[in-house]
Amino acid sequence: MATSYLERANSWLTNDFDEQTREQVKYLIENNLKELEDSFYRSLEFGTGGLRGIMGVGTNRINRYTIGMATQGLVNYIIKTFGADKQHSVAIAFDCRNNSSYFAEITADVFAANGFTVYQFENLRPTPELSFAIRHYGCVAGVMITASHNPKEYNGYKAYWNDGAQVTSPHDNNIIKEVLKIDQPSKVKFEGGTGVIKKIGIETDDEYLNAILSLTLLTKEMNSQSSLKIVYSPIHGTGVKLIPEALKRIGFKNIINVPEQDVTDGNFPTVKYPNPEEREALQMAIDKAILTGADIVLATDPDGDRLGVAVKNSAGEIEILNGNQTASILTYYLLARSKELGIIGEGSNKEYYMVKTIVTTDLLKTISESYGVEMMNVLTGFKFIAEVVRNLEGKRKFIGGGEESYGFNAGEFVRDKDAVISCCLLAEAAVWARLKGMTLTDLLKDIYLKYGFYKEHLISLTKKGKDGIEQIQSMMKAFRSSPPQHLAGSTVVLVHDYLKSETIDMVSDLRYKINLPKSDVLQFVSADNTIVSVRPSGTEPKIKFYFGVKGNLASVSEFEKTEAELNHKIEILSDQMISYQTTGNQ
Fold it and tell me: What are phi and psi of 86, to 5 degrees?
């Protein structure tokens, strides 16, 4: 192994690489072989969504050369797919991370050097606006420079197709093949060419915001009755550009900022991780809400596609909602309000549909079906939701859809999760609930009374580096070869193996085909409808365990008792899975 990574490192000492890069590689060779190995032991994988990794020199890092080679591979595939005799255009955006604007310039230069017209945002913008711009400008593809909510050391490269969605099969694997052919910088056109780079900005913002306004389900009269106080934080990211403005255009006036987090800074100085799934990332906004008496806290991740939420309950306390709860409220609001407006009717509404991922709460399906609207299940990743929307475009109408990892979208003009849209709809839902005499937590309890008390929990185990990847692979192999027989005392009756594309009925020993693309996910379902899902993260060095349990909520007064029972069951499941993955004991 030593020879391999040293050979890779030495190949970066040639004149194909700039002097600064060569000096950094020399320093690692002479002073830090462990870091050198991690930087060069492999080529950073261009996965089905693009690149994501730590910034620095090396084949396993995000830098000028890995970005350039990925772009050239993407260029070559686009030309193969759409023809070399046509004028192609792409859209490029970037977030707040360190070097994001630099990497966006490199990406734009490579496209232009290959003869493309490039629509490049002049400043940072959220990922969903990049998706919108691809469709708006009729582009064949797009690139977003971002590492989403990863730590500050990371950056990344998301590749989008002409429908505004991240690439899916067969394009994802075909792009990977083309990227792998670009094995040295000399194969990249970094400059020159006949292409044109066109800067875009506020004119695109206006088109995007007008599209969002078309989704509103509140009347002006209803909105005027609300004095809803909203604390919003972009957590140093792109949401600062558009979300306050979007809320104002809908009619919300009491928007309270968190000035320290309005500062665009890729070092994320006020948080450990810029992830709205973490309480710590929301704390400054929560403190501001308590100080100002605000009703709701909205916080978005650096690239503006994920939304974290905290709301004031009927006792005046601030409660954090998880991604499943937020998606449940949004699903219920969209359907219930659409019915009030006569958009959907009684009984079956076959022309409409919604979509969720397989690890997202089944409460969404229960709600949707109660309104006669189909809820489809897809693999983890919003690109699979977007794929359904693309396939059904012009045939049926997409109301909305989401995933437990704090992503949601509505309408068809953006083909990725969209925190700008989600912020607006959740604020609307809060007004709608208030006009019925409820807070959002009251509304959530009302949903549980109607449909059952669904409770979910996620545990992520971080396994860094080469050894970590091998450990995660070993864990998945162990779960696949010897699945648990019980979940918290309830017999496992179904095992869904999405890598093998089959469901095993553990009672009858029958096999059923799963009609979804292959993915390294296992799902265990017990007799009492407890669900445990296990999968490696596609963007971080983690293995994830998703727990889903369900109980009956007899009355609101029984809420705390029922929740405690469900939490206890999740604790048992968590201990069982952690013990099982280390010892194999059930």
Answer: -115, 155
- What is the chain's mean pLDDT, rounded? 94
Instruction: Tell whether the model's pLDDT for residue 223 goes beyond 80.
Output: no
CB 59 within 8 A of CB 42: yes
Q: Are strands 229-233 and 254-257 parallel, antiparallel or unpaired?
A: parallel
CA 374 vs CA 327, 353, 365, 400: distances in Å: 16, 5, 8, 11
Q: Please list the active-site residues.
A: 148
User: E strands, 268-327, where?
Assistant: 296-300, 307-312, 318-321
pLDDT in tens, 293-309: 999 999 999 999 999 99
Give residue for tokens 């194909």.
Answer: 16
Separation in Å, CA 40 to CA 65, 103, 144, 157: 13, 20, 25, 19
Residues 57-66, mean pLDDT to the nearest whole number: 97
What single DSSP character describes residue 45?
A: P
Separation in Å, CA 443 to CA 233, 258, 438, 492, 531: 24, 27, 6, 33, 25
Helix (H, G, I), strand (E, B) or coil at 408: strand
Which pLDDT tens digit goes with each residue over 538-566?
A: 767 789 999 999 999 999 999 999 999 99
Residue 179 CA to residue 66 CA, distance in Å, equals 10
Q: How far is CA 388 from CA 163, 370, 379, 496, in A?
A: 12, 21, 11, 21
User: How far apart, in whole angstroms, are the C-alpha atoms of residue 189 and residue 198?
Assistant: 19
Q: What DSSP string describes 443-506? A: HHHHHHHHH-EEEEEEEEEE--HHHHHHHHHHHHHHHHHS--SEETTEEEEEEEETTTTEEEET
Predicted confidence at residue 3, as pLDDT, reads: 54
Element (H, E) at 535: strand 531-536
Secondary structure of residue 507 in the 3-state scheme: coil
Query: How far from the centroid of its chain's Cα atoms is residue 493's Cα?
Result: 31
Percent of the chain whose pLDDT exceeds 90: 87
Indicate the pTM of the whole model.
0.93
Quick check: 310 and 289 in contact, CB under 8 A? yes
Report the C-alpha gap between 136 and 157 in whole angstroms: 21
> ∠528-529-531 over CA atoms, to 5°?
125
At 279, the amino acid letter reads: R
356 has which bridge partners?
A: 377, 402
